[in-house]
């Protein structure tokens, strides 16, 4: 019985050790991200704007940029363990107010699922 579980355990370790990457097109995500650039920056020189810089956001806990003033609702969710994983980012980029009611982000959301996947893939290129 133990020997039957070893291959399963090894496969589970292999799957969880590999990074999970969005299935989008990062090059197209860069184009779609232009809609976000009025408020957010990415890259080596990224700074706070209306929104925080998004370097390393994919997989990170919410509310992590220390010198950014987040909405109380986001901070409350962050204290509850909100993480910007693929599922949460997808929901947020679709309709931000559904994820963070009374949040500061005034963006209505992206309509196309492929654009959302592409933006997430693009954001994954910044650590």
UniProtKB/TrEMBL annotation:
Signal peptide: 1-22
Keywords for this protein: Electron transport, Heme, Iron, Metal-binding, Signal, Transport
Classification via SUPFAM superfamilies: Cytochrome c
UniProt key word Iron: yes
Gene3D superfamilies per UniProt: Cytochrome c-like domain (1.10.760.10)
Domain Cytochrome c positions: 24-127
The organism's place on the tree of life at top rank: Bacteria
GO molecular function: electron transfer activity; heme binding; metal ion binding
Record carries keyword Signal: yes
Protein name, as recorded: Cytochrome c
Species this protein is from: Tropicimonas sediminicola
């Amino acid at each position: 019985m133990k020997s039957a579980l070893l291959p399963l355990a090894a496969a589970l370790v292999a799957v969880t050790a590999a990074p999970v990457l969005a299935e989008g097109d990062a090059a197209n995500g860069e184009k779609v991200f232009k809609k976000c650039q009025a408020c957010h920056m990415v890259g080596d020189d990224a700074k706070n704007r209306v929104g925080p810089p998004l370097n390393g956001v994919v997989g990170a806990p919410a509310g992590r940029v220390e010198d950014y003033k987040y909405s109380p609702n986001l901070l409350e969710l962050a204290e509850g363990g909100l993480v910007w994983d693929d599922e949460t980012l997808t929901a947020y980029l679709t309709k931000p107010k559904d994820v963070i009611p009374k949040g500061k982000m005034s963006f209505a959301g992206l309509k196309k699922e492929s654009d959302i996947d592409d933006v997430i893939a693009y954001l994954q290129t910044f650590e």
